[in-house]
Amino acid sequence: MKTIRFVYIFTFIAFVGIFSSAFSPLSKSALKPPSSDVELLGAGASFPYPLYSKMFSEYNIKTGVKINYQSIGSGGGIKQLMSKTVDFGASDAFLNDEDLAKMPANVVHIPTCLGAAVITYNLPGDPTLKFTPDVAADIFLGKIANWNDARIKKLNPMVNLPDMPISIVHRSDGSGTTFIFTDYLSKISEEWKNKVGHKTSVDWPIGLGAKGNEGVSGMIKQTPGALGYVELIYALQNKMPVGLLQNKSGKYVEASIKSVTAAANIAIPVDARVSITNTDAPDGYPISSFTWILLYKEQNYDSRPEDKAKEVVKLVWWMTHEAQQYAAPLIYAPLPKEALKVVEANLKSIVFNGKSLL
Amino acid sequence: MLFDQKNKTINNREDKKLHKVLLFEKIFQKSLGLTGIILIIILISIFITLTITSIPSIKHLGIKFLYGKAWNPVTDEYGALPFLIGTLLTSLLALIISSPFALSTAIFLGEYYPKGLVSNIFKNIIELLASIPSVVYGFWGIVILVPIVRNLETQLHVLPYGVGILTSSIILAIMIIPYSVSLSRQVISMVPPSLKEGAYSLGATRFEVIKKIIIPHTRSGLFASILLALGRALGETMAVTMLIGNSHYIPKNIFSPGNTMASVIANEFTEATGSVYLSVLIEMGLLLFVVTTLINISGRQIIKRYILH
Fold first, then answer.
1. Phi/psi zone of residue A213: left (φ > 0), alpha (ψ -120 to 50 degrees), beta?
2. How many CB pairs under 8 A join A and B?
3. Residue A215 — left, alpha, or beta (φ > 0 → left; ψ -120 to 50 → alpha)?
4. What pLDDT was estimated at residue B272?
């Protein structure tokens, strides 16, 4: 009996010893390089998640800094930043003046890459169709209901368009893709702006809802005559037919990494809060958008250590510079030169106790 | 003397033993009660949290939330009626579709083959239905069921969406079958043999025994099994979201696309920006909670009042 008890006590002491030594700061600093003590937390948009996760794993290899990013959606990211439970938030939509006023402190927007929404459809022969802004808007308003409508025919004289109803498929879940698509429609169509407006989910005049890009594209592939919108990445990866869209300069633009980056190569306001849908850029694809990382301008809050603040700013600088090389292989559009100027100025404006961190 | 003393120590020892046993019994009973109380506390606190977090929505919309038909996040106008109708319609339709299957399977397993290889195979397969994740049901529905329903719709000359109320009801029906089968099978197999034997000895056929003895005797249990299945159907989210078409309008017929309360929450919660919008979705959860509770309570009343007496 006694020996058994002794063994128990001994193992207990041994465990306590192992655990306390494993978690004591002394042994930790002895085992790893000093910078790896910093662990950064981020949360937000799911659209850039594949790119971010690639970037963060590369950054971890390079510097030892661990970044934990939760892709819970833009709304969640903003909420978590608001309650100061994360080091940075990520969002597909910038904060409007009203939301910005609700934040507990000044927030800086840093664009990291670009995405786009494309119009895709299911027609026999998978033709590449041309759309003008007003035709696109009227299709989604339900005013053009058949594929052999004269206005679609006029734009695509070479394509044999069938007598088939157009079934609209849209996202049923709230999403950044819906935000930029409806933002575009609101800019080009007065009727859309008044009737529907733009948000992460809206009151669609017609059509079916499907969950996620995969749901929308699945339903389009299954339904002859269907038309909807998905993320550019998704359409390219799944080799779906993508419509050419006429931009502000009158050009029919194919959605590609190049044309999306081109869309952002315009003068950008200093706070980087800008919608670039219906861009002025002559070669730009009109349904493009930045995705942002959100940071507090004053990094000294909730008694955070200074090196944590420094690491966050360093990370975002790296993401917007060296790490841009990872964007194109994953079909994200990298930042253009014009945007980079704003990024640099904004990152330099981030301070700790009023002192710049870069 | 010596004998007496010995007896005393034995008594004393037994007392101690008894005391120990009694103490254990007491602790056991208390801990059982405690777990029960914890469950009740959790339920009540969920209700309270839902109510408190839906206050902004209740303030903004008032009673209009219950009968409003609009759902517009841009202008902050929300009405739960289309979703309420969608939820009730899909669940009831699923019950109507599944009940004949569930009942006949339960009679088959409870009365004809209560034991043996056949019954084991059946039971296991039906229980397996309950363990398939709902996203798999949804996926299967998209790939297999939607084209079938679309064909049917083209032949009936309604708009061939493929997805909609009917499609999600069929999937729901398959999903809830194991719940009603397992309970009703047990109820049926528990009918006292003396009753059945009495009927047989009076010359009743098997069908007559089922009709006149088993079903009347198990009515309340069968109804309870249907209720259990209904509870499952009301809250099902993923498979329904994938198959219902997610349209924010009141369905015109069973082929129309619609939406349910659970699926609108799942769809819009992650990107719900703005305090009213988020709060509206939470109030929708509260409404679903209340509806489920009401249905359960009224079901129990029906059992008490009409079936037991």
1. alpha
2. 92
3. alpha
4. 81
Task: Indicate yes or no: CB of B273 within 8 angstroms of CB of A99.
Answer: yes
Strands, sheet with A130-131, edge to edge from the N-terminal-most edge strand? A130-131, A244-246, A252-253
Residues of B in contact with A210 (CB under 8 A): 242, 246
* Percent of chain B clearing pLDDT 70 (strictly above): 96
CA atoms of A56 and A76, how far apart (whole Å): 20
- Token duo for residue A107: 């927030």
C-beta atoms surrounding A162 within 10 Å: 13
pTM of the model: 0.81
Mutation site, B134, B244, B246, interface A, largest A CB count within 10 A = B246
- Give the N- to C-terminal CA distance of chain A in Å, as an integer: 65
**Where do the structural domains in chain B lie, given as residue ranges?**
1-61, 64-308
- Tokens, residue A181: 């698509």
B14-46 confidence digits (pLDDT tens): 788 888 889 999 999 999 999 999 999 999 999
In this structure, whether the domain defined by B64-308 belongs to CATH 1.10.3720.10 is answered with: yes
Residues B218 and B99: beta-carbon distance below 8 Å: no
Per-residue pLDDT tens digits for A248-277: 999 999 999 999 999 999 989 999 999 999
Q: Which residues of B are less than 8 Å from A224 in CB distance?
A: none
Q: Which of A106, A110, A111 is nearest to A300 (CA)?
A: A106
**Which residues neighbour A93 within 8 Å (Cβ) at sequence distance 6 or greater?**
A74, A176, A179, A200, B273
* Pairwise CA distance, residues A310 & A321, whole Å: 17
Cβ contact B161–A74 (<8 Å)? no
What distance in Å separates residue B123's CA from the closest CA in chain A?
Answer: 34
Q: Which residue of B has its CA nearest to A196?
A: B74
What 3 state SS string does A60-74 have? HHHHCCEEEEECCCH
